[in-house]
Amino acid sequence: MSNLEERPDEVTCAAGSTTVEVVAPRLVPLGGPRGMTVRRTLPQRGRSLIGAWCFLDHYGPDDVASTGGMVVAPHPHTGLQTASWLFTGEVQHRDSLGTAAMVRPGELNLMTAGRGISHSEVSPPGTTTLHGAQLWVALPDGARFVDPAFDHHAPAPRTGDGWVARVFLGSLLGETSPVSTHTPLLGAELLLEPGARLDLDVDPSFEHGVLVDTGSVHAAGEAVEAHELAYVPPGAGVLALHAGAEGARLLVLGGPPFGEAIVMWWNFVGRDHDEVVAHRAAWQAQVEAGAGADGSPDHAVGGPFGVVPGESLAPIPAPDLPRVRLRERR
């Protein structure tokens, strides 16, 4: 998913906390007055990363007839991976590697941008409701310029007393995802029946996030309501979950503290101002080179981010940079 804010904020990221935090989402409208509104819990001023997870948009259930659904034209990414996870609906993913894959509920699509990729995301006509999460993973310094890649995984559900789990990244509850990552990560969906209790054996070196989609839960002793994100610092080998009277659906995310400061602006994750400016300039040059005399897209013209085969939507131009130098904070 692209960050479609017309004036995206500069985000300087650093980690560090020793107590459980509960983060409320901020509402971010995407794509104009009829577009989708997402609930963004990462990044925020008080919490930038959970492990290498650096961006979390949670949306829906949205009536596509009212919002127009997801119509995200080709746009660039660098220095990150995008993880798409749906609860309801479908989204057609296309990228400059030539990938054409449908995002479906309970199935992971993980796109590695590395040195640069472009992609589009469009909900098909048969989708009437969209509900899911879009997450980004910051790539560590040694992997920031790897070749782009795409992985798909449909995890089998694992069941227990009052719970169902789908582990899409990392290991949990005896399940391990086959999808490799550049830093240790955990990503799983959990369905908890009303009043269910579940003690998760987790890596004590990881920090964890618990995003509640529906219902409510106590996570590590803290009450977390629908749409909120609980941050649990490293140190404990058990993450205790207790669902409320209506049950809960949630995402559990984790990873060791990232240990690197990053600058994130628009769809780029970099390390300093000049790097992000260079990425923006390269994408904008590609967009302008691909426009014909009448302004229509010429998909035969490529660039460092590649073109998306079979996509008729014109690429999204880069927004203007802030008037001040982007800051990197450690």
From TrEMBL:
Coiled coil start-end: none
Start and end residues of each Pirin N-terminal domain: 37-137
Organism ancestry: Bacteria, Bacillati, Actinomycetota, Actinomycetes, Propionibacteriales
Listed Gene3D superfamilies: Jelly Rolls
CDD domains: cupin_pirin_C, cupin_pirin_N
Pirin C-terminal domain span: 189-285
InterPro entries named in the record: Pirin, Pirin_C_dom, Pirin_N_dom, RmlC-like_jellyroll, RmlC_Cupin_sf
The name this protein goes by in its record: Pirin family protein
Similarity comment text for this entry: Belongs to the pirin family.
Organism of derivation: Nocardioides kribbensis
